[in-house]
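[INFO] parsing input record for dITP/XTP pyrophosphatase
[DEBUG] input buffer:
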Amino acid sequence: MKLILATSNKDKVREIKKILDDKINIFSPGDLNIDSFEVVEDGKTLKENAYKKAKAIYDITNLPTLADDTGLFVKSLDFRPGVYSHRYANENPTYKENRDKLLSELKDKDNRQAYFMTVLCFIDSRGKDYYFEGRINGEISHREHGDKDFGYDQIFRVNSKTFGEMKEEEKNSYSHRAKALDKFKNFIKNNYESISS
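[DEBUG] output buffer:
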């Protein structure tokens, strides 16, 4: 099976490739010489944004496409940054700028409960869309921990460690993205031949 990932984020591509089964041939837009892939993520939900990204690549390639939209939801911030997690600090922030803004907003907050949510949109070879969700609860640390510089990983703590402190194998065994991708893998294993015929 040939699958296009609707993202230009190299860290996300690497993580998804590690989690998905080796039997799936995964390509990024750059692999297909689609160098200017950018979608305005103005949906009000993760599901809407995931669909927009998947549909944009599917319309170009007509190949099975998978898109991921992920948000960090912090309870004491009225569940911000949520759908705006990727561009929280400004229109084109670094990972650290997003983390710094979040930590600043939480400096006087006692409740640091949060959760990560991932929604995947898969568009098959016939153009039909399917969705898969993954969620993990945790909390926001008071400062950065670990050397894995991907998104909010250095400040999102689960079971006494931030994702930034974990080895990739540990994070990928139960993260929000791993949970969603596990559902997707099971779907492909059980259904793909029938839905792609």
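[INFO] Strands lie at 2-5, 25-27, 65-74, 80-82, 113-123, 129-140, 156-158, 161-162.
[INFO] shutting down worker
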